[in-house]
Design a protein that fits this description.
The complex is a heterodimer of chains A (302) and B (541). By secondary structure, chain A is of the alpha/beta class. Chain A is built from eleven helices and 13 strands. In chain A, strands 5-6-7-3-8-9 form a six-stranded mixed β-sheet, sandwiched between helices. In chain A, strands 11-12-10-13 form a four-stranded antiparallel β-sheet, with helices on one face. Chain A has a three-stranded antiparallel β-sheet with strand order 2-1-4, with helices on one face. The C terminus of chain A is likely disordered. The radius of gyration of chain B is 24 Å and the shape is globular. The N and C termini of chain B lie far apart (59 Å). Classes of the chains: A alpha/beta (302), B mainly alpha (541).
Chain lengths: 302, 541
């Protein structure tokens, strides 16, 4: 599969801060890639490097088979970008700004633009000074989604949007994905990432600490199982990957790692299941597990 | 029951000022660098000039020779005032005739820039919301800004008094001038406060209060030239009316303080009629689609700078038409070194030509203010994060930066041509000869080359050392000091050579010479090249 974004061992420092500390990131063409990490981990620095706004100190950055620093203008014709914090010219209207950006890229689709403006319920006649944060965000979203760019780079694009607008945004991103476009989505809204993304990368302290398909990442985390059986379950704790058991008279609760699920459930079944509920690991748990520990410990785990 | 209500009303009213003390401390902290710079700038230039005047004019004869020139000379009156005390000149009255009006203007600028920085400019950011959400009253930021600015202008004014006292000038006059300066400061604190309530953007508030200052200057100048009551319509007229070193009239401090206080109260009342972040002037809805012309960074830069270009061109045009009218009077000037220093002409030229050359130079200095602020928009666009989406689009850095520079440069030329054209028309009307118009337009065009060098300097700083971009103002300040005070201060030539204005032939007092203009243009070209290279290699903020 072709790669849309390839970053290898990229380092970017600001004074004594290492914002990117040997970062590796790969995004395949046509996938929706989630980019997750705590505040200050280096997500925006990564994106600004990909846009050629920052010059990496070392490492290799390829974007759509070009060099984002040297081929900025040509690459940007094929990219649409939504920043997390949208700042607009206060005395221009939202409509004017959307048109301006579309014309800079040279691809103007007024039908799509109008449709998006209506869907997002944006008043394009208002001076942008009077827009709320959510409305400023909509201006950037309409600009990006109305374009025919083959790569969408979205840096926390839904901050400030209400849940209804968020859903519209998600539908639009899925539509873009169906059209074969590539999306890099940096987000804190884990539900959004779960719904949209094929693969995710987790970044921490300037390095990607985990990357892979969501399903794979899930299997490395535990599922919590609560079960009632006819007979008392014995021998479950001996299976590798099974966590601490909590029992009361009839029920047993346990966290089971993905790879141990099959063995554990077979064993449980042999004791005669009367009721069973299980909860798959959420991205939130994944996120918390990955990032709750100290950074240096996380390094050890690698 | 009613006592409780009354108590609550009082508590509420006082509550509007809650937090003023903390905001005041915060304002002092934010200005910990600016405030000393203002002090050193204003008091330093004043002290240096006063010192050299005191050294230059010692004997009654020397003083009398200065006075013969300045008295009854409309050109001098227009620029510096009626020359109180020059009928029996002392060192003090000569110093003030040289520096008094410029110092009033400097203090007024200090007051309005500082007030707006801490009120409207703050409100434009998201910070104001955080502050107001804290237990901070509605009037606290206005009160803190006013108190802080009043303190700052008072300290600078006292510095001026101390400076004059140490130069050995008469104590009563020194105190009178210092207090008049503080009074001017108070008036413009009030003006800026009102402007900050009406306008919804800091830039507009500064422009509006600056326009008030310009109008006040012109009204006073017209009054002084024609010797009539118009002077009393202008706070600058009141301030000079204290007659420092010339039988002081202390009571003029009363209208200055009352006006400043009254305007600030008006601002307080206005602030209760509007929402946080909004101005009194309401926004109208705009077009839902961009005009077909808005399709390049150049057109956007033009759109963003349009209002300010028109404003500056109109403002200079209004003031300079009057300068042109006054120029005719300059022919009454005699040959006197001191006035020649003020006017900056060479011995050979006619006084009116020297005066015209001076107003061309002053137009250049004022236009440089526009140029620097226009070029530095690049930096403010970058810092505000508005450069990013454009540069993340199919626009090269070079195109984006040069677009803004091109609009700034064209705007500079336009602003200067407006000044030259109107001054030329004013002068032509004065002497009754339409042929006088074009030479002045030529003169401002030559002058524009020097101004563009300063713009290119700002551009180079933006490209190479963006954090230090505002140091570009130092170039303008140096140009101003060299041009207006270079002779009085007896600055060495190598320092003067740093000012691009120094190299422009002083048209129409001197003959035209293309060589220095070409050299200046080349310097500007190199600076622009440096700026483009630097910007192409650095990180975007």
């Amino acid at each position: 599969m072709a790669t849309a974004i390839a970053m290898k061992n990229v380092v970017k420092t600001f004074g004594s801060t290492r914002a990117l500390d040997g970062l590796d990131l790969e995004v395949a063409t046509g996938e929706v890639h989630g980019y997750l990490g705590p505040n200050g981990a280096g997500k925006s620095v990564t994106i600004r490097t990909l846009l050629g706004l920052l010059r990496p100190d070392s490492g290799e950055v390829r974007l759509l088979d070009g060099d984002p620093w040297l081929d900025a203008v040509e690459l940007h014709r094929r990219i649409a970008y939504v920043p997390g914090d949208v700042s607009l010219w206060s005395n221009l209207t939202g409509g004017e700004i959307i048109d301006y950006f579309a014309r800079l890229r040279g691809d103007v689709d007024t039908r799509k633009r109008d449709e998006l403006i209506e869907q997002f319920e944006l008043d394009p006649r208002k001076k942008s000074r009077t827009y709320s944060k959510g409305n400023r965000q909509k201006v950037a979203l309409v600009t990006a989604l109305a374009s025919s760019a083959e790569l969408l780079i979205l840096d926390e694009p839904t901050s400030g949007l209400d849940p209804l607008m968020e859903t519209i945004f998600q539908d639009r991103v899925l539509e873009a994905a169906r059209e074969g476009r590539t999306v890099l989505l940096s987000s804190h809204i884990l539900g959004e990432v779960e719904r949209l993304c094929d693969r995710v990368s987790l970044i921490r302290a300037g390095r990607v600490v985990r990357t892979g398909a969501l399903a794979d990442l899930r299997s490395s985390t535990s599922t919590s199982v609560t079960v009632s059986t006819e007979r008392r379950i014995e021998g479950l704790a001996e299976i590798a990957g099974v966590g601490t058991l909590t029992r009361d008279e009839t029920r047993l609760s346990v966290d089971v790692d993905g790879h141990a699920l099959d063995e554990a459930l077979s064993l449980i079944a042999s004791f005669g299941i009367t009721s069973l509920s299980s909860q798959p690991p959420t991205l939130t748990e994944l996120f918390l597990r990955e990032f709750e520990t100290e950074p240096d410990k996380a390094g050890d785990e690698l | 029951m009613s006592a409780i209500t009354a108590e609550r009303t009082v508590a509420r009213r006082l509550g509007r000022f809650t937090g003023t003390r903390n905001l005041l401390r915060f304002a002092v902290r934010r200005d910990r660098l600016r405030a000393p710079l203002w002090f050193v700038g204003v008091v330093g230039v004043f002290t240096a000039t006063a010192g050299s005047v005191v050294a230059l004019y010692k004997t009654p004869d020397q003083l009398a020779s200065y006075a013969t020139l300045a008295v009854d000379n409309p050109a001098v009156q227009a620029l510096t005032g009626p020359g109180y005390g020059l009928d029996d000149p002392t060192q003090g009255s000569v110093v003030l005739n040289e520096m008094g009006m410029f110092t009033f203007i400097a203090i007024a600028l200090l007051a309005l820039v500082t007030v707006i920085r801490h009120t409207r400019a703050e409100e434009e950011t998201d910070r104001a919301e955080l502050v107001r959400a804290a237990p901070v009253g509605r009037h606290a930021s206005l009160a803190a800004a006013s108190l802080w600015t009043a303190a700052l202008t008072t300290v600078v004014s006292l510095g001026l008094t101390v400076s004059m006292l140490t130069s050995g000038l008469d104590p009563a006059g020194s105190w009178a001038f210092g207090l008049a300066c503080a009074g001017v400061g108070f008036v413009f604190i009030g003006v800026a406060n009102v402007a900050a309530q009406i306008a919804s953007e800091a830039r507009a508030a500064i422009a509006a209060s600056g326009a008030v200052l310009a109008v006040m200057f012109v009204v006073r100048a017209l009054g002084d030239v024609s010797g009539n009551w118009l002077v009393w319509l202008s706070p600058l007229g009141w301030a000079q009316g204290i007659r420092a070193y010339a039988d002081e009239r202390w009571w003029v401090l009363v209208p200055l303080l009352v006006t400043g206080g009254a305007l600030t109260i008006v601002a307080l009342v206005l602030s209760r009629r509007r929402d946080l972040g909004a101005g009194i002037l309401q926004q109208r809805p705009g077009p839902a689609e961009a005009s077909p012309r808005l399709r390049s960074p150049l057109m956007l830069a033009l759109r963003l700078q349009r209002t300010s270009i028109i404003g500056w061109a109109a403002g200079l045009g209004i003031v300079w038409v009057f300068m042109g009218v006054v120029a005719k009077q300059a022919d009454t000037l005699l040959e006197n070194q001191a006035v020649a220093d003020v006017i900056g002409g060479s011995g050979a030229a006619s006084p009116s030509d020297s005066f015209l050359a001076t107003i061309v130079l002053m137009a250049g200095l004022v236009a440089a203010g526009f140029t620097i602020s226009a070029v530095l928009r690049l930096r403010s666009e970058e810092v505000a994060g508005r450069a990013e989406p454009t540069l993340a689009n199919a626009v090269s850095r070079r195109t984006w930066a040069l677009s803004h520079l091109a609009v700034s440069s064209a705007g500079t030329v336009l602003v200067l041509v407006s000044a030259g054209l109107t001054a030329g028309i004013g002068y032509a009307i004065g002497v009754g000869d339409a042929a006088e118009v074009l030479p002045l337009v030529g003169a401002v065009l030559a002058m524009s080359v020097a101004v563009l060098v300063l713009g290119a300097f700002a551009f180079a700083l933006f490209g190479l050392a963006p954090r230090w971009a505002s140091l570009a103002w130092v170039g303008v300040a140096l140009g101003g000091v060299v041009a207006l005070l270079g002779a009085t201060l007896d600055l060495p030539q190598w320092i003067r050579n740093f000012s691009p204005f120094e190299h422009v032939p002083a048209l129409p007092a001197e003959p035209f010479n293309a060589v220095p203009l070409l050299v200046l243009a080349a310097v500007a070209g190199v600076l622009v090249w440096i700026g483009v290279r630097g910007f192409g290699r650095r990180d975007i903020n």
